[in-house]
Amino acid sequence: MNTRERILQKAIELFNQSGMYNTGVREIARSLEISPGNLSYHFARKEDLLVAILDSYRDLNDAIYATYFEGQPELGRYLEMISRLLENTYDHRGVFLGLDELRAVLGTEYDYPAVEEKRRSFLDRILVDLEQIGDLDFSTLDRAFMVDILAFFQRCWIMEAMISYPHLKKDRILKRYMRTISLHFAQVATLQGQGQIGMWL
Amino acid sequence: MNTRERILQKAIELFNQSGMYNTGVREIARSLEISPGNLSYHFARKEDLLVAILDSYRDLNDAIYATYFEGQPELGRYLEMISRLLENTYDHRGVFLGLDELRAVLGTEYDYPAVEEKRRSFLDRILVDLEQIGDLDFSTLDRAFMVDILAFFQRCWIMEAMISYPHLKKDRILKRYMRTISLHFAQVATLQGQGQIGMWL
DNA sequence: ACAATATTAGGACATTGTACTAATTCATGC
DNA sequence: GCATGAATTAGTACAATGTCCTAATATTGT
User: Fold this and answer.
1) What domain range is A4 assigned to?
2) CATH code for the domain in which residue B28 is found
3) pTM of the prediction?
4) Which of A145, B87, B108, B153 counts the most CB atoms within 10 A of its CB?
């Protein structure tokens, strides 16, 4: 692991621990036993660290989606994928709490609308497939509204989690929010689909 | 308006504009034409500003709830109240984006779990009333789950709004999220209730 | 081996939040 | 009317921060 990667790893760790604003670049450098100037060489601005972490987050997310799309559509598999997405978000939670900086970066270095659009189109495609194989049924609830709900949930849950349940362990938090999202799916699941939800409730 | 109130007002304005972390105490002082020392006298730490803004937010929220509870329960009145709650949140949005600081303050000066618990109990009480008068029907969707959904929404919408739609005007944003919440109510509204939702869609 | 490039260390700089002191204003007693 | 004490204000000092610059060292390619 080269220096750049070590810095990134440590930044993620410290940001998750105490937040972006409470973690100084000197603290990152000190805990890696490198000089501030060295850190500054690899990441000129603190913002660059944030962008790099966001990239890492997005790459892992993409890989998780890719694995799902390789196999057959199935509600059970989809929920499993969501749980991996939530875990990835949790592991990068530090950057999602520095909203002030995040806002500054979005729209410049990081193309957030594109990420958002991809998320929505993936969601829609997945729901269509799940309806086709008979796991879901959108006769009582508009599919577009379901996409809205899910997209909103996936964007925001980590913020609520860190504010409302900062003391809970990772497992408990993930379990809690997987339960919530499963309840949403229970609303639109067919009998066939219901069978694949039970384990998350 | 005394100096303390002027500072508070300006802090809310500047925090909303550029976020907590991008607004220095000297900038607040300069735009009020007072000395940094004077500001430091009224608010020793920047955190104290945040706490004061949160207090202002909570007081206005309480007043809005109080007005609703003075009258008769009705879905239309409730939605109107929600729109006022959303507006109040929007007007204090600056502090909700400084999540790092927010987390530090919550649990010490500001009793967030209490606020949260109050919100949930109010929500539950309101939904019970609306079911009783025949505007809502919770035979298909658990009322507790509806409380979860609404509480989650009210906590998080402003963060999504500032990240996803930073360019939109206040009116458009409020309209958008009132539509979303109305769609949630449409799921559990009786025919009698449906009539009071239309104007928000 | 040497030249060119990449990496590292150390420190300078402006800016930040905060703390301190002295000056000024204000309110309240007589 | 004025003296006294408290409240408010201004100005500045301080440590810590993010950023930048320069010189030294390590690495690479030929």
Assistant:
1) 1-44
2) 1.10.10.60
3) 0.94
4) B153
